[in-house]
Design a protein that fits this description.
Elements: H1 7-25, H2 32-39, H3 43-49, H4 53-69, H5 79-96, H6 100-104, H7 108-112, H8 116-141, H9 151-170, H10 178-193
Length: about 200
């Protein structure tokens, strides 16, 4: 006997299925019938949890936010630890939902949501950039990174690195598992950021 899902669990399941359909097949295939089939429910069940398909798309964006920004443990006072956790969390999100990059970096969902869509998607992307920037600024103030580091350029490099790993994973082009590649990328980045130690 199958156990009935609570309303929040069902909404989350529907949002996850929406991300999968949009990421794999695009908005043209994003219908109530496809969504119901993916989840294993009836069309009517979808509309017990959402008033319309637009609300499902908004829930998918909220779910992406949850996946990307879920805390990975206590917040460290060390900004470099926070930055490392951010990178690992972003890369881990792909293991949970492999279609995230297709949705985040596609203009389809933002345009499908009308005027609100581009603003919400941009806010989602900008939140990540601002987090990286703030970690780098804090690390610079604490003397944890080289004093000549260009914060803005490094912010772009880090977010671009994460995006590159995500797309390589989606294309099947990674030469190592995501977790291992994330570790290697972080170690490379960390060695570039570290202050030069003067030996006497």
């Amino acid at each position: 006997m199958t156990t009935r899902k609570s309303a929040p669990e069902r909404r989350k399941q529907i949002a996850d299925a929406a991300i999968k359909i949009i990421g794999e097949r695009g908005l043209r295939e994003f219908t109530a019938a496809q969504l119901a089939r993916e989840v294993g429910i009836t069309d009517a069940t979808i509309f017990r949890h959402f008033k319309d398909m637009n609300e499902v798309k908004l829930a998918a964006l909220d779910r992406i936010h949850d996946l990307l920004d879920a805390p990975a443990g206590p917040v460290s006072p060390n900004p470099l630890v926070r930055l490392e956790q951010f990178i690992r969390r972003r890369l881990h999100s792909i293991a949970v939902q492999p279609d995230l990059p297709s949705v985040i970096f596609s203009d389809q969902i933002s345009h499908a949501l009308g005027d609100e869509g581009p603003l919400r998607v941009a806010a989602l992307r900008n939140r990540g950039r601002e987090f990286v920037r703030s970690c780098l600024r804090d690390a610079a103030q604490q003397g944890l990174i080289r004093s000549d580091i260009d914060i803005e350029a490094t912010t772009i490099l880090i977010t671009g690195m994460v995006m590159g790993v995500l797309f390589a994973a989606k294309d099947g082009a990674l030469t190592a598992p995501i977790a291992e590649m994330g570790e290697r990328c972080w170690r490379t980045l960390e060695s570039m950021l570290q202050p030069v130690r003067v030996t006497q």
